[in-house]
Specification:
single chain; 114 residues; alpha+beta; 4-stranded antiparallel beta sheet; 3 helices; 4 strands; 33% helix; elongated
Amino acid sequence: MNRLEQLALEAEVSACILGNLTTRDFALVDLHAPGPIPECLHGRGLGVIGVTGIVGGVPRTALAVELDDVALSAIAQVWLRYLSARITPHIQPPPGDSIRFLERLHALDDTRQG
């Protein structure tokens, strides 16, 4: 078993990193989602870059290719959007608390200098 497969098996949340290093186009595919690869990924010239996931609450990444800082930053942004989309449906603030908090925040005196 290689590093990518190992991470995919161990992670609570994982995704395959697909990318086109020439165009800097990156996408993540949920490794635990049933079904075929989404149609929106076809024709973009994407290849396997690696696997990213969370193991025991710790982020982990196994790369199949060497990446520069710009590519790593772009992948990190895609990863954050991916996680946000997965987490957001499970977060529900108590009814009314957000509005009351913002009203109290807006009523505070601005003590900043300048």
